[in-house]
Amino acid sequence: MITEIPLTEFKHKLNNSSLDYPQCNCQGQECPKTFFNILSIGSRQSGKTYTLAKLLKHYEMNKLKDKEDNIHPMRVIVISPTFDANPIYKSLKTLDEENDVYTDYSDELLNNILTDIKNKKEETDNFKKYELAYKILDKTPEKDLPQLYERSPEVFKILEEYNYELPSKIPQPTYYEYPCNFIVLDDLLGTGGFNSKKNSVLMNAFIKNRHLGVNFCILVQSCKGVPKTIRLNSSVFHLCRFANKRVILEDIYPEVSNILTEEQFEELYNEGTKEKYGSIIVDCTHKEKRFLKSLDSELFIS
Question: How many distinct structural domains can be found in the chain?
Fold first, then answer.
């Protein structure tokens, strides 16, 4: 027999609200929620690049907004030795081919990209601090300026950098709102990008993607060579049609085994890939896991 006695000292509630990440403004809210990591696996010409480009185009068309209804710009960065063979990327308006396309991967390159993302975030922060300081000073009556200086000397220190110029007259940030960054790593197996060393730039960034403000999109032709760290930290799995389905089922099933049985997983995969360019998408970014047939329909297991 078990007796239960309620406790009285732990009735307080903690604030556990989710962070204000920009999310897609589409009506159905059926797309993966940012910030995610996608692992897309499919043989050459299986449609994996097309599906990713279609998803990114969806975000472009519907915009990404935070809880205060601010629109956050998208920035797409592609690292792929086969970029020129994939003209589908050219359909993305948020991809700056001149500055954000690379054909050779290195840890140094990725580190430089992440540093640039961080620097642009600091640009935005510093500009908004200046803007806020200017508003505070502008609204303060002249007779109250000494008290303001006593209370908030940092306001004057911030404004001194640009000699109290109007915010519109000082150097403008690249982005007024933090961009939602999508880093696409396409066809990089064998390039050294997927080494599992502890100091790997990609492995560390993949784990901390939300903190960095990055959605990683990894496209590969085979699970072989993809470190377990990437599979464990992926929140969206895109699986294309393979001649030998056992290979992909055995490699990926352990990563989704907590949400469905192996038989159910195989049933979903068969349904999603029964057509030539078909695929199955396992989306773990929502409270309830979702199973999509390409980006055309949602599948349910009865």
Answer: 1
Q: Is residue 56 part of a domain?
A: yes
Domain assignment present for residue 218? The answer is yes
Give 76's strand partners: 95, 182
Name the DSSP class of 274. Answer: S
Q: What tens-digit pLDDT sequence spans the chain (302 residues)?
A: 777 777 777 666 666 555 678 999 988 778 999 999 999 998 888 889 999 999 999 999 999 999 999 999 999 999 999 888 888 999 999 999 999 999 999 999 999 999 999 999 999 999 999 999 999 999 999 999 999 999 999 999 999 999 999 999 999 999 999 999 999 999 887 666 677 666 788 999 999 999 999 999 999 988 777 888 888 899 999 998 877 777 777 778 877 777 788 888 888 888 888 888 889 999 999 888 889 998 989 888 87
The greatest distance separating any two alpha carbons of the chain, rounded to the nearest whole angstrom, comes to: 79
Angstrom distance (rounded) from CA 98 to CA 86: 16
Range of the domain at 65: 24-107+179-299
For CA atoms 237, 231, 214, 283, the dihedral sign is positive
Backbone phi, psi, residue 241, to 5°: -75, 130
Of 218, 278, 249, 259, the C-alpha closest to 52 is: 218
- CATH number of the domain where residue 252 is located: 3.40.50.300
With vertex at residue 105, the alpha carbon angle to CA 111 and CA 92, rounded to the nearest 5 degrees, is 90
Residues pairing with 299 in the sheet? 291
Contact by Cβ (8 Å): 241, 282: no
Is 37 within a domain? yes
Closest listed residue to residue 78, CA positions, set 162, 167, 185: 185
- Taking the CA atoms of the chain, what radius of gyration do you get in angstroms? 24
Q: Which of 218, 200, 211, 11 is nearest to 108 (CA)?
A: 200
